[in-house]
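#struct-pred
JK: can someone run the complex with adenosine monophosphate? inputs below
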Amino acid sequence: MKRLDLIFSERELQAILNTLENANVPGYTVMKHATGRGPERVVTEDMEFTGLGANAHVIVFCEQEIIDKMRDEIRSVLSYYGGVAYISEATPL
Amino acid sequence: MKRLDLIFSERELQAILNTLENANVPGYTVMKHATGRGPERVVTEDMEFTGLGANAHVIVFCEQEIIDKMRDEIRSVLSYYGGVAYISEATPL
Amino acid sequence: MKRLDLIFSERELQAILNTLENANVPGYTVMKHATGRGPERVVTEDMEFTGLGANAHVIVFCEQEIIDKMRDEIRSVLSYYGGVAYISEATPL
Amino acid sequence: MDLSLLLQNIFAPTVLFFFIGVIAVFCKSDLEIPAPLPKLFSLYLLLAIGFKGGIGIQESGILNNQVLLTLSAAILMSLLIPLLGFIILRLKFNVFNSAAIAASYGSISAVTFITAESFLASQNIVADGFMVGALALMESPAILVGLLLVRFAAPKDRPGSRKLHLSSILHESFLNGSVYLLITSLIIGFLTSLSNPSAVEKMYPFTHSIFYGVECFFLLDMGMVAAQRLPSLKKAGSFLIGFAILMPIFNSIIGVLVARSLSLETGNAFLFVVLCASASYLAVPAAMRMTVPEARSSYYISTTLGLTFPFNIVLGIPLYMSLVNKFIPISTF
Amino acid sequence: MDLSLLLQNIFAPTVLFFFIGVIAVFCKSDLEIPAPLPKLFSLYLLLAIGFKGGIGIQESGILNNQVLLTLSAAILMSLLIPLLGFIILRLKFNVFNSAAIAASYGSISAVTFITAESFLASQNIVADGFMVGALALMESPAILVGLLLVRFAAPKDRPGSRKLHLSSILHESFLNGSVYLLITSLIIGFLTSLSNPSAVEKMYPFTHSIFYGVECFFLLDMGMVAAQRLPSLKKAGSFLIGFAILMPIFNSIIGVLVARSLSLETGNAFLFVVLCASASYLAVPAAMRMTVPEARSSYYISTTLGLTFPFNIVLGIPLYMSLVNKFIPISTF
Amino acid sequence: MDLSLLLQNIFAPTVLFFFIGVIAVFCKSDLEIPAPLPKLFSLYLLLAIGFKGGIGIQESGILNNQVLLTLSAAILMSLLIPLLGFIILRLKFNVFNSAAIAASYGSISAVTFITAESFLASQNIVADGFMVGALALMESPAILVGLLLVRFAAPKDRPGSRKLHLSSILHESFLNGSVYLLITSLIIGFLTSLSNPSAVEKMYPFTHSIFYGVECFFLLDMGMVAAQRLPSLKKAGSFLIGFAILMPIFNSIIGVLVARSLSLETGNAFLFVVLCASASYLAVPAAMRMTVPEARSSYYISTTLGLTFPFNIVLGIPLYMSLVNKFIPISTF
Ligand SMILES: Nc1ncnc2c1ncn2[C@@H]1O[C@H](COP(=O)(O)O)[C@@H](O)[C@H]1O
Ligand SMILES: Nc1ncnc2c1ncn2[C@@H]1O[C@H](COP(=O)(O)O)[C@@H](O)[C@H]1O
Ligand SMILES: Nc1ncnc2c1ncn2[C@@H]1O[C@H](COP(=O)(O)O)[C@@H](O)[C@H]1O
Ligand code: NA
Ligand code: NA
Ligand code: NA
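RT: done, structure tokens with the ligand placed:
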């Protein structure tokens, strides 16, 4: 089993969730209000009330095949406003 | 060292924390207000003010033996309202 | 690629971020309002309005070398109020 | 239904703010009221309704016959409606879902009630303070019935861990956060009004003056929530969609008949009908999710929040007023 | 600038609270208003400004010549200013950054407007309710211009996925959360004032009475935000820092001339000038971040929030008042 | 203690809301006020107390002898009490814990103060506006003393990284978020009242009218927090539990004697005593956690929040009133 961590602008949450649904992930978890810095941009707390939105952190536990299916689409979404995606190993309890 | 990720209904937080305490985990971290979707249920933001509660994400860094001790109890709690539990490798800094 | 998870008192967030910046991490993500328990202390929700502050959870995806550079400084910051730091493997999507 | 009533209702700020919430979602505006701000409004409204209600009850002098009869009828309705609903829902759903949905319709929605109160005020019709008592008393019994239905009608093979003990049934019915806050605030309002009128005055700006504005703000949020709930309603199927509209109307008719037989005055009768017709999206869903995890929360929350609530706010209130006008003889003072 | 005006402005609670926010950051106090509380204030202010504005427009009777002229001039300014700004900014920045920053200065800041209104009230100068209409009308056109500039001036090799369709340009211009809430609240205020004056009264304590206090609270937060933004301004360079101060002054001068040529009265003229001089940190940045990801958000948000906003609040308002006093003949009633 | 005073205190809405918060936790109701909403109330209360206090000070004309004496006595008490507390606590605890707990009892609790003010108002006893000045002045010195105690009494082997520089001691004492907000709001209130009375009026609905209601809401939350803190108190042991009750009583007795020797009038004397008896759960704990990580935060926060605060709110206030009635001669005007 794999664990996929996606961190990106909250604005793209719907697009990412659609991608996940289309790939038939068994589930996902969303944590909003994350801030951070990437190679180019800084995302700070005041961006939330100014309407620019903070980041969302999405965790997906799923099989490698599902990740392979989504790879291109996720990458293309993340290429728009930025964001990162990392895979690690995970074993169900 | 292992990392245990537990994601489940906030309503069960106390039960899960009790389980962790009983197994003598060295510590844990709780993040509330997570939303998500599992195989059956969707958990959305409006469930918080309607009193249904969102999800909690609990992270525990501990030894494999402790996880083994807790496995059955955690599974039984998670079987009630649902939720997921995954283990991965982690090395202290 | 590595994933570094740092969990510590919100009060030290600036010090930790400075350390990360000095080590030239490619980016980081911050999630505030985490609570938890460590070997000695409990951090609960009411500590936020009493001004004691909750925990912050910082995730950094970066190379091992960068982690090696930061190790001592992070450890020294975490030794003040406590906190944990763990490394795991991660592959970019 | 009387068209002028409909228009008067629709042009109230409360309903207009509800609309702009709905429209914001339909137009994909990025307007957002992030959690936990809606919780703030919802807690405030419960506290203020309760406090105001407690004062109202104290002022109307509790123990006369009419009051006791009305309150008893209210409790009775909240026991009866879930039973009727359960029978209807069992045609299509399993015991768990049927009980959870039926309980929601037996209980009440405080925001529907206060929107109805504002409507009443705009019509210059008075109602008695003790009607908030009816509101408070109708929240819990439906939960009780729902959980008892699960307890006795659930399949024998329900795992032991999910056995509903009477104690946990009572706990969920009366100690649910929103039930608890409403009832205790009501008691505090009552006690304060009794023993400390100057404190009532000091609370006034908070509990009374800014109430209507906060209500509007909250309805803006409710509009967004309701609209976001709609897609998941489609999945629920046409039976449930029909139920979400017809059940309130059905309940309102029973309500009118009961109100008539109790010879309630126009204002009280109208609020009584609204209580019967409204469905819970706070206390009951929360209790059901705790104790009946087998029920799909999207069923009971999407119907009440996505359909019944908007229906009542927009069309139901003027409709029930028309019903009351038709069936309740105008009271002569 | 008139020193007494400056002092009177600085000793208003709004500005004082802004200062203590700034000082808190400079002194490294751990004072914090955690998310999403600032959002609550910001939503409240938009809703209340809109609602009050709608009442104001209704009360001033919409369709007279002066009103139409003023509103048209407002729209024109919000189309013109971004074009001028764009030309200036292109000296130093690429198309994306120039368009995004220019659009911010074409649009308006509602909080600057209400601080100006309070200042006006403290001077016992009246202004007309329809000026909130000007505020609402000036938010979107600048976004439109900014996005059209990107569409037509952007390098040919912009990837197709970032092509700006007219529909999404319009969507961002008019359905942006803060634009939407302001305009719809204005419409609700208008309709309510027209059809339901008693509801206006019921809203009054929420939308009017506590408004000034909430404004102060919000300015405390804005002070902290502005001060936190300052360091990133240094990175933006001296050209942008100069622009953030000189552009509002430049715009205010055009504004005064337009106001004079329209023979606006003192109060309206002053608010008109403030609108021209103020820059958006809500609607425009949000829209730009959605549609022009190539622009550096730290450029357009740090200038407006970290420099132009404080400048306007503290020095701009008395400066623009002096300008108006000098160039606008005192109206004789 | 006078039983009628106790009853009058307990039947105030503030105290009743505190109780229902406590009961909610004991009954395991799922009532919850999620973070960061309590922070909103706490920021609001500090801002409003400060602002009102500033007006009060301005109105009572600052520089007369009685005022200066009272304020000096207040500062003295907040220097003296932590020293006494430290000596007692050292019987059982190490330097770090003793200093942190002692500092908390030397400082004050603003919410205890305003509950006492409401109680006073319900007794129709007046107090002077400058007493809020005493409140503000008593917050910081105790922090100072606590940190100096750590600096000089801490074991020699404390790691260098934890050396307390005077600058950081002062920083924590005066720039702590809640100290800072209270003091700066007080200054703003003072300046506004002096230079801009119409602005005071515009603030009034926010800072004065809705204050009591927000206070009740906050006390509901405090009730829950206090009750949640109780279990961890058990771990702290009976010495600390005794200290949390007896220290305030002890301090109140010193307070009464000082008030008597200063010939304070009833109202002022009572508030002075309450300040002496109350313990900080905002400023001091936050400062101690920053600078003395060796101290167990659960010790100093659980005692003040879980025991001393409820004790003062419920029993302390009427008790201190009885003391004042007994020892302070009734003032003849
Ligand atoms: N190396 C990284 N480690 C952790 N989070 C990151 C990293 N790079 C970017 N992020 C997160 O992804 C968001 C978007 O990054 P960017 O693509 O640079 O705009 C940032 O705001 C961070 O929250
Ligand atoms: N495959 C998954 N990956 C990440 N989170 C999940 C997954 N499945 C379930 N969850 C989380 O666990 C919660 C409970 O899931 P469920 O057991 O389906 O009700 C969901 O709301 C998600 O937040
Ligand atoms: N073993 C652990 N697993 C997960 N989180 C931990 C662990 N130990 C400590 N923490 C987190 O780190 C914070 C600080 O811990 P401490 O150093 O004990 O004060 C705690 O409040 C937890 O949020
Ligand atoms: Na009902
Ligand atoms: Na402008
Ligand atoms: Na004290």
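RT: quick notes.
Chains E and B do not touch (no CB pair under 8 Å).
Chain E has a mean pLDDT of 92.
JK: thanks, will look after standup
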